[in-house]
Amino acid sequence: MTQNIYDDSNFFHGYSQMARSINGLDAAPEWPALKAMLPPMQGLKVVDLGCGYGWFCRWASEQGAQSVLGLDVSEKMLDKARSTTPNSNIRYERADLEHLDLPAASFDLAYSSLALHYIKDLAGLFANIYTALKPGSHFVFSIEHPIFMAPRNPGWITDADGRKSWPVDSYQLQGERVTNWLADGVIKQHRTIGTLLNTLIAAGFSIRHVNEWGPTDAQVTALPALAEERERPMMMLVSVHR
């Protein structure tokens, strides 16, 4: 079973204080780039893998999606999503993405935001998503960038001139990485970029677009702290076609 760190009280409290938890998609700096990779929502049947508070589910419904299924392993996340969702065409279910069993040819779009780096059997998940999508459908997701996931402890290093660097530790050594983010002992699965993309191809997907996300000039001007994200990519945004 996927580690259910989001039901840890300390972790959930820390997560609930983040800007994207309070203000939703508009507070996620990668959202404009991710949104640009999505197809028109009108009439689509959508599944959100790792839906969290349900921000994307509600957005998809508001954009005209016919139905939206939000899946998450965390009961705390699902409780929050249900309490803030009035939309009748959205339903939420608890599901472990490691053991997902979606019905075949049921969805027009699969979406996931910053959840797939927790998944050990990513090949199995991609295979199930491929089967669950109708021919011609889309799968769009964000994931922690492999370079971001493999830092040398303690991460950022600042030299005598104030220049910052992000040394990478054993990038080619794939597998479990344990981090202390919001709580101790958070388990993530490190893969190289090649492994991630080739796993999608092996599942049958055609890669449409890959964005090693970084902030725009306007975003850095509005929020100078984002300049740090130009030193190394924190996220990858990927769009594939079924």
UniProtKB/TrEMBL annotation:
Matching CDD domains: AdoMet_MTases (cd02440)
GO biological process entries: methylation
Database matches in InterPro entries: Methyltransf_11 (IPR013216), SAM-dependent_MTases_sf (IPR029063)
Single GO molecular function: S-adenosylmethionine-dependent methyltransferase activity
Matching Pfam families: Methyltransf_11 (PF08241)
Methyltransferase type domain residues: 47-141
UniProt keyword Methyltransferase, yes or no: yes
Record-annotated membrane-spanning stretches: none
Keyword vocabulary terms for this entry: Methyltransferase, Transferase
Protein name (Swiss-Prot/TrEMBL): Methyltransferase domain-containing protein
Taxon lineage: Bacteria, Pseudomonadati, Pseudomonadota, Gammaproteobacteria, Pseudomonadales
